[in-house]
Predict the structure.
Amino acid sequence: MSTLQRVFYVEDEPDIQAVARLALEMVGGFTVKICSSGEEALREVVAFAPDLILLDVMMPGMDGPSTLKALRELPSMAVVPVAFMTAKVQPAEVAHFKSLGARDVIPKPFDPMTLASQVRAIWEGHHGS
Amino acid sequence: MSTNMKAFQALLAGMREAFLDELPERCNGFETLILELERSTGDRETFNELYRGVHSLKGSGGTHGLSILTTLCHQLENLLSEADARQDFGSRFTTHALAYVDLLRQVRHQAHRDTPDYSGIEADLEALRLSSLQSRKAGLIAESSATLAGFYQQALATLPLQLTVVDNGLTALERLLHEPFDFVIVGRELKELNGIAMMAALRASQTRNQKIPALLVTSRRDAIPDHAGFNAVIARDQNQAGNLVAAVRAALAA
């Protein structure tokens, strides 16, 4: 199994972007690309070639589920693991997000100290280790 | 702890400070928009800007570990949604909205103390919530048909209720899990999650709404599973308006 290196995060809130970038880069050691909207993500994602994608659910314009659907239509993004980041984490809600094709759900607000390890665990789960 | 982690924590603490330092400016912006909403009797652009600002603060506050901000913003969002639904941005709305902003301002002061204690703010918040409700009871209508939801609202208009309408089972569940309601009216067929599954999830939850009265409105005659825990089933027939009012009265009197 290759290691997780490139993380692509779609999130519209600048404060949350800044904390997540810090957590993923400093603690996880990942290469991180952040986009502020689903539309921007669709323009940037292929060139970045992520190992894993994190999607905010509630965003103006294209929301997280719509962005996931559009990403899956890009041939190179068809199987890249995606996790939603959302405050909606009741069992029925999580089941709904997984039914849309997400690998997992990271609860918001996230803990900056453990975000990188949560992301790594999702990656490892996807690759069956 | 490694040097890297110490540096990380120091950076996080710096970002949190910067966020708290910006809080008064955000509050000033909210106050201006609230007053503008009253003056313009609900200008759409002003409303959207205010709602987006409050929603943004909710997310950012949680990320910086300030859950009190998340709670405050959530209730202010509710106040805004209700005022929008009624198109009532009068002086009563303004008074309550400004009171929420005052509580937001207090968070910065408390967060800077060595041992922050938010219990005073929480108590004021609950008093504010009750005051905005007055003696009305809060009900949620989960119904996929806008026509039927409107019909229920009309039928219940004579009771002292504050009604929230959602057309999606998942949204209904989310609101029931996170916001206080006194009762819920449920249509059987809802988008995303049907009414019975939604209620079963609520009854299995450990939330304050776990045991609230629930009324199912349905045209079907087959058995309703016990685990959904409906207190009454109202048939969709010519008597449904009267039966619904009677069932809500009975549920609230129990």
About this structure: The mean pLDDT of chain B is 90.
